[in-house]
Amino acid sequence: MGGPATFVGHIGGDDFVVLTTPDLAVPVAHEAIARFDRVAPTLYDPEDRARGFIEAEDRRGERRRFPLLSISIGIATTAVRRFTHRAEAVAVATELKNLAKRTPGSSYAVDRRAGA
User: Fold this and answer.
1) 33 Cβ neighbours under 8 A, 6+ residues apart
2) Mean pLDDT of 76-100
3) 97-110: pLDDT as tens digits
4) 34 to each of 39, 82, 84, 89, 96, how far by Cα in Å?
5) Mean pLDDT score across all residues of the chain
6) How far apart are alpha carbons 32 and 55 in whole angstroms?
7) Fewer Cβ close by (within 10 Å): the C or N end of the chain?
8) CB 93 within 8 A of CB 100
9) How many CB atoms lie within 10 A of CB 77?
10) Could you tell me which residues come within 8 angstroms of residue 81 by beta carbon, excluding any fewer than 6 positions away?
């Protein structure tokens, strides 16, 4: 999706970056969520999938419930503002990703602020 004008890269860990045109940002987010949500449930046993979480020990050895995998996308767009440095775009995208994470399940958040 997006053709040669779209770039997908791995930043590290579970963080990725997609560079595309402003008009494709939301459609790409929708498609990424749709594809992720189609595949992610297949990674679980039917019982865990039906229950909506897994039970496992955390890093401290305490038994906890963990939600099923979801994807959170933060969109920093140049549709209404310009960034003076790529680090500024990364900071905005990170802020929006953290906002999207507050919503249960897969979601995205778009920065619609005009900037300074």
Assistant:
1) 71, 73, 106, 107, 108
2) 92
3) 999 999 999 999 99
4) 9, 29, 32, 25, 19
5) 92
6) 27
7) C
8) no
9) 20
10) 111, 113, 114, 115
Q: What sign does the CA torsion over 81, 90, 25, 98 have?
A: negative
Distance set, CA 63 to CA 54, 86, 98, 102, 108 (Å): 10, 41, 25, 23, 30
Q: Tokens 């999938």 map to which residue?
A: 49
Q: Which residue has the tokens 């990364």?
A: 90
**Whole-number Å distance between alpha carbons of 110 and 93:** 8
Determine the residue type at 28: V
The one-character DSSP state at 40 is G
**Could you tell me what percentage of the chain is helix, strand and coil, using 3-state DSSP and rounding each to the nearest 5?**
40, 25, 35
Residue 66, classed as helix, strand or coil, is strand
Query: Residue 60: which H helix or E strand, with range?
Result: none
